[in-house]
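note to self: dont lose this again. the chain is below, predicted strucutre after it. 467 aa total, dont forget to put it in the shared folder this time
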Amino acid sequence: MSLTAIATVPSSARRWVACVVLLAGAFLPPADFFIVNVTLSSIHATLHATPAQLQLVISGYAAGYAVFLVTGGRLGDLYGRRRMFLLGMAGFTLTSMLCGLATSALMLVIARVVQGISAALLLPQVLGAMPTLFNDERGLSRAMSAYGIMMGLASAAGQLGGGVLVAWSPWDLGWRGVFLLKLPVCLAVFVAAWIVVPETSTSRHSRLDVGGIVLLSAMLGCFILPLAEAQQLQWPLWSIVALVSVPVLLVAFLGWEARFTRRGGMPLLDLGLMRIRSFRRGAAVATLFYFTTPFYLLFGLYQQEGRGVDPLFTGLAFLPYGIGLFAGSMGSAPLPAWWRPRLLTIGMVIQVAGYAAIGLGVANGLPPWSVTLAVFIAGFGQGIALPRLYNVALGHVPPDKAGVAAGVVNSLLQIGSAVGVTAIGSLFFSVLGGAHGEPAYAHAFGIAMIAVVTALGLAMLATTLRD
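---
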C-alpha cells in the first residue's frame, strides 16, 4: 500500500497508532515551554539577558503560541489538518535549532516567538483530528483523557528534563542542549506523522480571516509587551498608550468577526461558539487555569537565584509535581461515572490548596519536606483537573466546529499563560527590586503566589456554575 493510501484510509488499529503519533507531536510544545524554565539562570549568564528578556523567552513563546493557535485551527479546517501538522512540526524543528544556536538574548527571544507560532500550527490539529479519528463516544473520551494526561505530564517532564540536560551538558552544550538534543525526536515524529496520520478535515474554499489575525495579534502585543518591558523602562508613554488601546482593539476585533461572518467568511473566532454555555464556561476556566504557569518560572528562579541550587536539583524539585500529576491522572481515571462531573472542581480545589501551601511554605521558611509535600499536592490536583478541562469546554461542540473550538481553547490557555507569566512575573521582579539572597526571593515568591492562587481560585469557582 502506498504512503498516500496509508495516510487516508486508517483502520481501527491505525487510528490509535495515528493518535499516539499526534500525541507525541502535541507533547513537544508544552514540554518545550516548561523545559526552558530551569535554564533561565544559565541563559542570563551566557547571553547577559535582562529580566525583561528572560520573561520574554517564556512569554514571547506563549504569546506567539496564543495569537496563532486559533489561526492554526482555522488553517487546518481550510487546508488540511495533516498538512498543517506536518508544516508546524517542520517549523518547530527548525526553530528549535535556531534557539539552540542563538548568539544573543534578542535572537533567542525572536526565535522563541517564531517557535511558538510553529507550535500553534501543529497543536490544534491534534484536538481537531480526535472527533474524526474516533467517532464513538468511548473512543473519543479515552483519546481526550490521554490528551489531557499528556499535556500535564509534559509540564512536569519538561521541568525535570531541562534540569537533567543542563547538568549533564553533553558536548558542553549547556542550556543549548534543551533545544538541540530534541531535534532527533522532532524528526522522528515528523516522519511517523507523514506515514500514519490520516487527513481528517473536510476542506472548504473560504477566505482566511487576515483582519482578525491582525487585530488579535495587535491586542495581545499591546497587552503583553508593556507588562514585560515598561517597568524596567519606567513606564514610558508608549506603554500607557498600548495598554489603553487594548479594550479598543478588543471591541474592534469582535466587531470585525461579526461582520466577517455575515459576509460568509470563516472567522478566526466563531462567535456562535459563545452561544454554547458549556463552551463559555470552559473558555473562562481555561483562561484563568494557566495563570498558574508563573509558578514554574518563579519557583525555578527561587531555587537557582535565591537558594543557589544547580539546574539538576532545581529540576528534581519539580519531580514531586510530576509524580503527583501522574498519580492524580491515573487514580481518578477509573472512578465511577457519577464522580466525573465533579472531578474538575475537586482537582482544582486540591490544586489551590497545594499552591497556597507552597507560597506559605517558601515565604515563611518552613522545612523543605513540607514544601515538597505541597508541590506533590498541587501536581496531584492538576492531574485530576486537567484531563477534564477539555471535556468541559469541548463536550458539546459540534464536530464541524471542533478544529476552531480546539484552537480557541488552546489559545485561551496560552493567553492565560502569557499574561500570567508577564503580569505575575513583573509583580515578582517589582517586589524583589534589586535585592539578593533567599529571604528576598522567598518574600517575592510568596507575594506572586497570592496572585496565582487568586486566579486559580476564580477558575475553580467558575467550574461550579451550571451550564
